[in-house]
Known about the structure:
Layout: H1 2-25, H2 27-43, H3 50-68
Helix pairs in contact: 1-2, 1-3
Amino acid sequence: MSKLLSIAALVLGIWLIYLGYERQQSLAGKTEDSLSKISQKVDGGDHMSTHVKYYVFGTVLVVGGVFGLRLVKK
């Protein structure tokens, strides 16, 4: 059961990274990234765009899946 969940996490993580890349290259992603940078300059807060969230969550799932499958040896 744990191998199945690890494989699912690995596949979902790769899919999220791909979605993040597609979003980054799209017109909506470029617009959101530009507006996020402008917002950071105006109020100094942290504004994370959607494609960055996809990259972060996808990477977490890929790393969890790899460790769950024990592909990284100690």
